[in-house]
User: Which sequence fits this backbone?
């Protein structure tokens, strides 16, 4: 079987959105016999697609497996640039290095790398990130804004707002943002965002946004040592979520917010961000590479820097840290 | 001829520093006949090495061509980490993307990429940089300091001081530093430094320092349109300079200053930098991506940021810009 033809047939079925697709027409188009087309359809059925064959009308796709293949994401895309180029892997160590390589070789703004499973997913400070096969969104987005590198940390916050909005739209759950890069539901982590950078001192070449969302895990899908601190959308809503649809929605908001950022700066996004934050107004302990600061989280600046007031009245600007909320 | 054996013989001759190397010993060591060793010596002579054969003593290297091959640089190295891994190319579009790839695949701190000729060398803001074959130093240095990305711009200044000191040591010429990334001799540009970055929001993964030094060009080696603004060390000193020796000296200072920076911070380097600067105390025009500022260059902060006082008395911090000195 020719995998390109199968991919094209799948794309046709998905984009027909429940309408029949004529087998004869597919056969003509690809220069194949109707039997060859039928064999491709059988293979798709083996992959979990449910396809009805309606006499004199054609094939109708009635249900598709929860996979993330490009064609599946494509069908839900409402963004114009983001997700137009999709690099899909069944399994990979991590989507970030792949995205870095693609960015180096000129991948356009909004290109994404997505996989079913990461075998060596990473969070901030190279901490392990569990990326169970087929259960979450393990994705890297390449963004190329014309900004100086000092502004890059803002994109962690832009992404946090985009993912929060997408989860709200698709699953009806309101997550909270814990500065800088975590989304929590009921105090447990459901999303991590890792912002990496290729830049010179004048401007950013590419931001490589790593987004990990726990979507359809059950408690036992998580390693025991993180079961008390991790959650998934399904664990909260009781419903499985179509990951491709959620990806498309994240890309939708990410594109809108990136464009908003480019035209109006960080301020409108800061307001949005603050409305989802669970960090501000709290007493926190912030741990950096070689420093710790305890105090009141006052707010974020227009650069996305967290302002913390220590007991001696001094105000410290923090770019990135581990935050422990103390009240 | 086996290129590895030839490389090892060359290394042996270079490190003998004028002492004879026994042909019989080389033959025994590599399991080759004396005739085979002699053939390798002949090949080296064809490459421009001058080798005397002294009866009963062996081969003596009396002069080597001005090339940058790893063995040649190695003989001059006094640094411990910097230059221990050398990636050499005869010709390449630019050493920076090669160094980026090496850094991504884990190249150690102090690794360098060096070539005889760049066909598409780049300066700040993707401007063309002329890299004439065999006449200059076209090099990228991978540095892995444990610092947050906000500190990375300081490395342009650290590198500027290291190159200035190296030129002073080797050629006896004192260059001036024009903030942020140019070295000038008699007001003409002889060196450009490009600081690129791989990072996340917490820390730098790698700084890729691009260093271009005009060494042995004559005026006519430069394209006509830059002859009035470019110069080389040889044009000023009247003497050709051994590029491998200059590279080793740059790496020597770069390692010392990087270590100084890690243990004592930017302040001691700031003092050094200021002593070579031709920007401070001058009226300047600074052009950024989407802004221009005119005023008095007051100094640099402990973060390496240029402080400019405009006529309304306001002080602006500038991370990177084109600087026009107005008096």
Assistant:
């Amino acid at each position: 079987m020719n995998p390109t033809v199968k991919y094209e047939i799948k794309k046709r079925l998905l984009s027909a959105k429940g309408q029949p697709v004529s087998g004869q027409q597919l056969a003509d188009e690809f220069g194949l016999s109707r039997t060859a087309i039928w064999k491709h359809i059988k293979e798709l059925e083996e992959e979990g697609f449910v396809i009805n064959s309606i006499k004199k009308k054609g094939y109708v796709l009635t249900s598709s497996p929860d996979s993330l293949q490009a064609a599946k994401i494509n069908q839900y895309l409402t963004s114009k640039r983001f997700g137009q180029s999709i690099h899909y892997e069944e399994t990979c160590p991590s989507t970030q290095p792949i995205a870095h390589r693609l960015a180096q070789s000129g991948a356009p703004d909004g290109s994404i790398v997505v996989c079913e499973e990461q075998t060596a997913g990473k969070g901030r400070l190279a901490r392990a990130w569990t990326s169970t096969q087929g259960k979450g969104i393990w994705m890297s987005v390449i963004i190329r804004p014309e900004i100086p590198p000092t502004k890059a940390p803002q994109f962690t916050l832009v992404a946090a707002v985009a993912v929060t909005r997408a989860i709200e739209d698709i699953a009806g759950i309101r997550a909270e943002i814990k500065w800088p890069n975590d989304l929590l539901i009921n105090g447990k982590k459901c999303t991590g965002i890792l912002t990496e950078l290729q830049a010179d001192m004048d401007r950013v070449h590419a931001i490589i946004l790593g987004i990990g969302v726990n979507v359809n895990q059950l408690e036992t899908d998580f390693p025991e040592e993180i079961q008390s601190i991790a959650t998934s959308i399904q664990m909260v809503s009781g419903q499985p979520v179509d990951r491709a649809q959620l990806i498309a929605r994240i890309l939708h908001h990410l594109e809108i917010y990136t464009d908003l950022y480019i035209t109006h700066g960080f301020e409108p996004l800061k307001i949005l961000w603050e409305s989802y934050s669970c960090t501000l107004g709290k007493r926190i302990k912030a741990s950096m590479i070689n420093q710790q600061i305890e105090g009141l989280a006052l707010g974020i600046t227009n650069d996305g820097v967290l302002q913390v007031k220590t007991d001696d009245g001094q105000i410290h600007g923090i770019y990135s840290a581990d935050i422990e909320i103390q009240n």
The domain at 283-325 of chain B is CATH 2.30.30.100 (SH3 type barrels.). The mean pLDDT of chain B is 91.
